[in-house]
């Protein structure tokens, strides 16, 4: 894990490991970082046991531990396969952090994936740097996705997935936003971000500032709510059906109510009892047949 200048924007969370002010990167350091990025896709075999141990150690310490970013890293039985790649990505991540100390707050490496963590105000400068810098050349945005964490103060993560065709590498950039916060639009940097941001607005309600046409793209006109939020009801709010009499699609209030959902990891079946077999009610016991009536003379 590498961190940048503590004078950069910290917003509402503290950084894990603020470092001292970085020095200017030399040309040789840039060349080394470029070679490291190029070598990521080669999957070269590990040369020595010491190198494997060093790479495994760096991979286990690459967890983004500062709130709101918490990347859970599970035990990986094939970590040796990515050992050399992980070490090279750490070198490249450190290079990017030293190039942009005011914008990159931290970075993490998991297997062959490099992730940068930035504040919302750094979206345009960081994406522009990654697109234009000679050692980056991430010219394509492959996707912009949202992640909802209802328990966080800043409940949304906005994730940018970039591709460098020149160096055959990928990088992920993450930022955060609350329900009432705006994230700067990336359309001025990547024209392909237009529909991706509209999708994030439609499904999550993440507002992108200075977007040229921020409106729904997947749901219907007049749709209420944002369907990929964790608190959105599974049944929705309205029922859509085709009316034979009106000869058109109609929207009606939903009649089927949904029970309250909580997001705890406990099993919902623990509340139904211990599973013992219930006793049969007395009224369900077999009734004896009536006695025959006597015949009157």
From TrEMBL:
Catalyzed reactions: a ubiquinone + NADH + 5 H(+)(in) = a ubiquinol + NAD(+) + 4 H(+)(out)
Major localization listed first in the record, in broad terms: mitochondrion
Highest taxon above the source species: Eukaryota
UniProt KW keywords: NAD, Translocase, Transport, Ubiquinone
Bias type Basic and acidic residues, positions: 276-297
Location of region: Disordered: 270-297
Subcellular location as annotated: Mitochondrion
GO cellular component, as recorded: membrane; mitochondrion
Domain NADH:ubiquinone oxidoreductase 30kDa subunit: 117-237
One annotated GO molecular function: oxidoreductase activity, acting on NAD(P)H
Pfam families: Complex1_30kDa
Claim: Translocase is one of the keywords in the record: yes
InterPro entries membership: NADH_DH_suC (IPR010218), NADH_quin_OxRdtase_su_C/D-like (IPR037232), NADH_UbQ_OxRdtase_30kDa_su (IPR001268), NADH_UbQ_OxRdtase_CS (IPR020396)
NCBIfam families named in the record: NuoC_fam, PRK06074.1-5
HAMAP family linked: NDH1_NuoC
Family label: Belongs to the complex I 30 kDa subunit family.
Annotated protein name in UniProt: NADH:ubiquinone oxidoreductase 30kDa subunit domain-containing protein
Species: Psilocybe cf. subviscida
Lineage of the species this protein comes from: Eukaryota, Fungi, Dikarya, Basidiomycota, Agaricomycotina
């Amino acid at each position: 894990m590498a961190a940048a200048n503590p004078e950069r924007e910290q917003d509402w969370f503290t950084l894990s490991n603020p470092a001292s002010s970085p020095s200017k990167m030399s040309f040789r350091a840039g060349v080394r970082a470029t070679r490291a990025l190029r070598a990521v896709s080669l999957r070269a075999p590990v040369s020595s046991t010491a190198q494997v141990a060093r790479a495994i150690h760096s991979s286990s310490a690459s967890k983004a531990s500062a709130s709101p970013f918490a990347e859970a890293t599970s035990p990986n039985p094939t970590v040796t396969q990515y050992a050399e790649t992980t070490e090279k990505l750490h070198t490249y991540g450190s290079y990017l952090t030293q190039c942009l100390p005011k914008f990159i707050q931290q970075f993490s490496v998991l297997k062959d994936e490099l992730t940068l963590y930035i504040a919302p105000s750094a979206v345009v400068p960081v994406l522009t740097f990654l697109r234009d810098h000679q050692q980056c050349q991430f010219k394509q945005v492959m996707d912009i996705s949202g992640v909802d964490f209802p328990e966080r103060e800043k409940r949304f993560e906005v994730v940018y997935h970039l591709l460098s065709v020149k160096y055959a590498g990928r990088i992920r950039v993450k930022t955060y936003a609350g329900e009432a916060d705006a994230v700067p639009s990336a359309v001025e940097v990547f024209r392909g971000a237009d529909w991706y941001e509209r999708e994030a607005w439609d499904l999550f309600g993440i507002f992108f500032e200075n977007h040229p046409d921020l409106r729904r793209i997947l749901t219907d006109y007049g749709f209420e709510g944002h369907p990929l939020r964790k608190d959105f009801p599974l049944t929705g709010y309205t029922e859509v059906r085709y009316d034979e009499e009106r000869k058109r699609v109609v929207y009606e209030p939903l009649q089927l109510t949904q029970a309250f959902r909580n997001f705890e990891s406990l099993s919902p079946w623990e509340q139904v009892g211990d599973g013992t077999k219930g006793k049969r009610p007395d009224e369900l016991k077999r009734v004896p047949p009536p006695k025959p009536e006597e015949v009157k003379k």
